[in-house]
Design brief:
single chain, alpha+beta, Immunoglobulin-like, six-stranded mixed beta sheet, three-stranded antiparallel beta sheet, 2 helices, 9 strands, about 30% helix, binds 2-acetamido-2-deoxy-beta-D-glucopyranose
Length: about 200
């Protein structure tokens, strides 16, 4: 029991320490990755169905070796400013541990400077919003050291919209409820009319 308490206190302390430790800031990252995302301009992607192809590579304008500490690359789906307004839970923070801009991981891959790509089906739990794609490069300590994104510094170009599955399912569900309501009513209707028929034939 005491051991368990000790363990709990220790892990609590550790998690406090961890949360106060150094965290990378977005403004300190070099933009050394080139990222592009294929999507038809104006087409709304359906979560759980539609695909997006993301391509990324090292920007060779930077001196060779700038990427020597890069170990992994994570591609993330990020909320565009228009979908962050009045939503504190999607707020951009320079401290990347607190940043809530990019909440949906597309893929995590070992870093390679050459051109890589992934064709990704938008996950079913992605909410309706306007997005862009950002790639973060991580060092061996799993800290962000560089990035790239398929949009400009103001997150205004090349954005795309995703429509959540829930909205579509809600309307399907409503249709299903209406339909079953309708069948219950018609079943009762059938039942009563048969009963009445039976009664009237009995009376004859
Ligand atoms: C590569 O980096 C240079 C220097 O920062 C920049 O001017 C250029 O636009 C970048 N290339 C691409 C394709 O993003
Ligand atoms: C994606 O990568 C594969 C394998 O490297 C390559 O054959 C393919 O042409 C690439 N596709 C795009 C769209 O870049």
């Amino acid at each position: 029991m005491a051991a368990l308490e000790g363990f709990l206190v220790a892990s609590l302390l550790l998690s406090c320490l961890a949360s106060t430790s150094y965290g990378a800031t977005f403004s300190s990252l070099q933009k050394t990755l080139v990222v592009s995302a294929s999507h038809q301009q104006g087409k709304v992607l359906k979560a759980g169905e539609d695909e997006i192809t993301v391509t990324w590579s090292y920007n060779n304008s930077f001196p060779a070796g700038t990427d020597s500490a890069y170990k992994t690359v994570k591609l993330k789906l990020c909320y565009a400013p228009v979908s962050q307004q009045d939503r504190a839970w999607r707020k951009t923070e320079d401290d990347l541990e607190k940043d809530k801009t990019c909440q949906h991981i597309i893929v995590s891959r070992p870093y390679s400077p050459s051109k890589s790509n992934i064709t990704w089906t938008v996950k079913r739990d992605v909410p309706t919003a306007t997005y862009f794609v950002r790639a973060y490069a991580y060092n061996s300590a799993d800290e962000e050291v560089a990035y790239g994104q398929n949009t400009d510094a103001h997150m205004a170009t090349n954005l795309f919209q995703i429509e959540a599955i829930s909205g579509r399912h809600a309307s399907l569900d409503i249709a299903a409820v209406c339909f079953s309501g309708f069948s219950v009513v018609s079943l009762f209707g059938f039942f009563f009319s048969e009963k009445r028929k039976a009664k009237s034939s009995q009376l004859k």
